[in-house]
Write a structure and sequence with these properties.
Layout (H helix, E strand, L loop, with lengths): L4 E7 L4 H16 L3 E7 L6 H8 L2 H18 L6 H6 L8 H32 L7 H10 L4 H8 L2 H16 L7 E4 L3 E4 L4 H16 L1
Parallel strand pairs: 1-2
Antiparallel strand pairs: 1-3, 3-4
């Protein structure tokens, strides 16, 4: 009987630590093809009002968030470009538009399309310092992902996509997830943070061994 292990991966497009963990999760998926990885949206800051509430102002938000970017970059592979983002004159984007894009991609191509689009948005945000709050940027990324643009735009603007995002947020709350990245192993073991690959692999090996018995 084939082993199966479900991994629920909660992440946000504006989360630098999610960028780090997503690369490790891709490596994990390659090494363990029996994993079922399900992607969930988590909004650290739905809109600018949320951002101002947390940081006091949009200017303060960008300064503080760039500290997180630099810390993430030390633990990543050097692809996060805080200097470039600091040079941009647009306000630091909030989560919602990027999450709408991810869910719209998922409606076209399932979990694989969600992950591909999520990675493209994160690359645009954290490496290229593009404004992922801009609808046109997100449409451009959908084209790069090979999505049907007419359907993407229709889904992006739909109430259905917003409801799906809210469902993910409610699920996170039910599982006591209050930060990202976080993974849930078989809906039982909660693993927060961008943990090192060797530690991530050890958890999966242990969980797979338990599935066998």
């Amino acid at each position: 009987m084939e082993r199966k292990l479900k991994i629920d991966f909660f992440h946000d497009v504006i989360c630098s630590w999610c960028y780090v963990l997503s690369s490790r999760m891709h490596k994990l998926a390659e090494e363990f093809p029996e994993l079922e990885i399900v992607h969930h949206s988590f909004a650290l800051s739905k809109d600018s009002k949320d951002t101002i509430r947390m940081f006091g102002s949009m200017e303060n938000a960008k300064k503080e968030i760039m500290k997180h970017w630099r810390a993430s970059n030390i633990n990543g592979d050097g692809k996060i470009n805080a200097d470039l983002m600091e040079s941009r004159d647009f306000e630091y984007p909030s989560s919602l538009n990027g999450l709408r894009g991810c869910k719209s991609a998922e409606l076209q191509g399932g979990q694989a399309a969600h992950w591909t689009y999520f990675d493209l948005v994160q690359q645009a945000h954290l490496t290229e310092a593009r404004n992922i709050g801009d609808r046109n940027v997100l449409i451009d990324l959908a084209e790069i992902a090979g999505l049907n643009i007419e359907k993407f735009i229709k889904d992006f603007d739909s109430e259905d996509v917003l409801m799906r995002i809210e469902e993910d947020i409610r699920l996170a709350r039910a599982w006591s997830i209050n930060s990202v990245p976080t993974i849930m192993i078989n809906e039982e073991v909660r693993v927060p943070g961008a943990i090192e690959y060797k530690d991530l692999k050890a958890l999966i090996v242990k969980a797979l061994s338990e599935v066998e018995h």
